Amino acid sequence: MGRFIQIVEVGPRDGLQNEKAVLEPAVRADFVRRLEAAGAQRIEAVSFVHPKYVPQMAGAEEVMAALPPAAGHSRIGLVLNGKGYDRALGTAVDEVNVAMSATDGFGLKNQGLNVDQQVQMLSDIMAGRANADGAPGATPKLSATLSCVWGCPFDGEVSVEQVGDLVARIAALGVEEIALADTIGVGDPWSVTKKVEASRKAAPDATLRLHFHDTRNTGLANAYAGVEAGVDILDASVGGIGGCPFAPGATGNIATEDLVYMLERAGFSTGYDLDQLIESARWIGEKIDKPRLSALSRAGGWKP
Description:
- The protein has 304 residues and is of the alpha/beta class.
- The protein contains twelve helices and eight strands.
- It has an eight-stranded parallel beta sheet.
- Helix 4 links the parallel strand 3 and strand 4 (95-101).
- The longest helix is centred in the middle third of the chain and has 17 residues, at 115-131.
């Protein structure tokens, strides 16, 4: 097989958080298990946010409690602040992903924090990790996702320099993996190349991850540009479900099955079973009353 591209499955978190349907924790845990059976090695399983603001993510602790340890799989919990981080530590998450924003406008809407305050929040979390007692590995791995890298619904365009500066600040705190997210789906392949290059220059030792929404039908093209730029980790959501409840018009992630099909047709490997992935997409589509949203869930794969 060719070069391995890791696809982080975000359907149970980013996928479900913007859907009208509110699924019980047991159903969401079943969703995670189905996706892992289809090949998801890393999966954003829960979000530790206040259920008042995102009721779809209520019961994160119950979801994690319903998931037995699984060798070779990593369950990620998303947090917006120190409170969420403390909640995550009380569960069996393998990784914590700290959500941040490239702009003050989105940061204030999403977390009530401007960019400088978000960096301070992350700094406090990192300091706490450094001072934590216990053996190495006692605390889960940590990554940071930078939202609105390609545009903000409140502040407009986001410059290459703006992104590079913030990536450098995050990396300087010791964060080893940084995800760049096109939260409202306004990016294009050429700007992907530019911002990946700027981020790599700003944080040469950090691992970059990319998170695209297909709001304006550029998601797969942007993923292609990221892979061509040397990025080996992409987020995707089975069925193409999801979006952000705090970003107007931020519909739909890249569908995991569509991305897997494109990459594997090109000779890359992903570790997913495409047929099982399509089955999972159809299953969750029925659960949220949005059947067959993605191209592959409608057309199926192709075997000459």
